[in-house]
Amino acid sequence: MLLAAVAIAVLIPIRECVSPHDWVELRVMEVPDDLDRIVVLRGEGVEPYPLNVYHAKLFVFTDVPMGGEWSWNSPTGERRGNVQWVSGDWYGILARRETGEWVTWRLAPEDVQGPSSLRYLLGGGSATIRAAGSEAATPAPVSLLKRIWAVDEVFPHERRDEGRRERADR
């Protein structure tokens, strides 16, 4: 029994280096067709915070999500990616529509299936979110965009240039 306890005490820190307990494969389902970027939010009280994304190179590290880190091999209406799962009071979506407008909405508790608690022992895990409720989306506050990315306008170079199109129509 003592040998098993010592083995666990040694192996868990080693496992944390290659497969941290908060590294979760997230599947976002029922993604509306008009969204081109998605960031999953967790809420503490009224404040939303993004779930960071995991990157695995030689060493595992997290980064602030940009909304496009999802697997391109997912079926239509679905996104898959690796996130740093942090428990929250509520979860939501920050998304950019194809028009360039950033919107946000909260998810109902039944739309979030979090990872198993076994991840603390075994590492990793999976979670599923239904991106339902986009019809109730409201424009994302600029303060939220500034807090996540420290900018006034996110990805302005990807925004459609409506002014150029209007000039060409004259």
In helices, the fraction of residues equals: 10-25%
Quaternary structure of the protein: single chain
> What is the count of DSSP helices, taking H or I runs of 4+ residues?
4
Termini Cα gap? 82 Å
What string, H for helix and E for strand, traces the elements in order? Answer: HEEEEEEEEEHEEHH
Main pleated sheet: 5 strands, antiparallel
| Stretches with pLDDT under 50, minimum 5 residues | 157-170
CA radius of gyration is 19 Å
Mean pLDDT: 79
Shape: elongated
**Domains (count):** 1
Strand content: 25-35%
Lateral arrangement of strands in the main beta sheet: 3-2-7-8-11
Secondary structure class reads alpha+beta
Number of strands: 11
Task: Describe what you observe in this structure.
- It is a single chain.
- This protein has one domain (2-155).
- It contains 4 helices and 11 strands; from the N terminus they run αβββββββββαββαα.
- Residues 157-170 have low confidence and may be disordered.
- With 170 residues, the protein is α+β, with helices and mostly antiparallel strands.
List keywords for this structure.
alpha+beta; single chain; 11 strands; 170 residues
Short characterization:
The chain is α+β, with helices and mostly antiparallel strands and 170 residues long. It has one domain.
Helix-strand layout with pairing:
Elements: H1 2-18, E1 23-29, E2 35-44, E3 47-50, E4 53-56, E5 60-63, E6 79-84, E7 90-97, E8 102-106, E9 112-113, H2 119-122, E10 126-130, E11 138-139, H3 142-149, H4 162-169
Parallel strand pairs: 1-10
Antiparallel strand pairs: 1-6, 2-3, 2-7, 4-5, 7-8, 8-11, 9-10
